[in-house]
Amino acid sequence: MSEADSQLLLARPIDVANIGVDLFADELEHQRVHVSRVDWRPPAEDTEDALGRLALQAADIARANDLALERIEDAKPLLVGVGVAGQLLPGMSERTLLHAGPPITWPDMSGPLRGAIIGAALYEGLATDPDDAERQARAGAFEFSPCHERGAVGPMAGVVSASMPMCIVENETHGNRAYCTFNEGLGKVLRYGANDAEVLDRLAWIRDVLARVFARALERLGSPIDLRSMTAQALQMGDEGHNRNRAGTSLLLRELLPVLLELDEPSSDVVAAARFIAGNDHFYLNLTMPAAKASADAAAGVERSSIVVAMARNGTEFGIRLSGTGGRWFTGPSGMIDGLYLPGYGPEDANRDIGDSTITETVGLGGFAMAASPAIVRFVGGRAEDALEATRAMYDISWGESRSYQIPALGFRGTPVGIDCREVVHTGLLPFVNTGIAHREPGVGQIGAGLVEPPMEAFVKGVRALAECV
User: For 168-175, what is the mean pLDDT?
Assistant: First the structure.
């Protein structure tokens, strides 16, 4: 071909679809060729048989997924009050200690989770000192169980003991409830494994003062707080519901402040409670989480459904539960987080991903709503454009779009909701999760934030189990 012919060819519009390696697309674009990049990945290894069997049941699975998604979308989680874990959660004894993530035993627990277990034992008076608590834990003196299996959720280590106060969230539509402890704030806190006198004193204050004032304020309101509506407003104000909850906390305090001023409680207690909430941007996270669980739990138990109704991490393993496979957990190694670190810390200090807060992603919040919160990238790393792309990518593995949670930057399109386990395995595209980074040693606290990929292994196990069920 002559040079003239080459120039004539390049002058014409040429469209090329590039699937796979970006190197080819980069070279074509350098030659002024218009390239459409297709983010295609082969299905996860050794899943062809399971995906094939599920494909034969596609129509039935679609009907099941429609029903599961309808239940998530129709859920109306309301903050109705405050109670005590031992009286609210099934099977709780004084020696029951709940934790975030799938089931785990003491030998396999990470530093932050062990530290929180020790702290809870001290808080409950079950041990005389940290060494005594550790000896008892090692000897099997405590009953360990996932929060998710008792109707609760907990951030980071997520440890819940019998006398801890819990926020009560009721799904008005379906009648089920979910529970979560109060958020302790940042720094040296139980959820990061801290367990010294400062931590225990704060937990006692939360139990004796904050929980009481908060409960009285809710009673004074006279009607429950609609958490779905409040979260939807927070998204319009720049939250994504997982790592950024500044707007949600502000909206909550705005709702409570008039009745707080009217309470017949010691003014010092009311002021301390109001200041604590106002000074803790993550306070609302512990309401978003049970609201999400109450919604996702309503979708559990739909035969043949491939929708993910729980994602959780215990600092060692990541686990999921599917609507169509009952209460079974499907697990893989919890990931290391790629993110930004506070001064003085780095990847060598980080614990593996931990916490129940990924329940938010199952209902279209968190990483799935990143486009609503471009400011979050300054916290977890990346560019504002990355937040938009993250949300757009999640539509490919989600069954539908939220009617309630809408994104202004995408023309008020609903967030992607209803993670389809089949599509995760088929596309190789994993759920997008943003999260905090805990130090691997108990008690140090949060040392950064970033993005983490769940293990494909968990979704592969789920797909195979679902294929056996259908």
Answer: 98
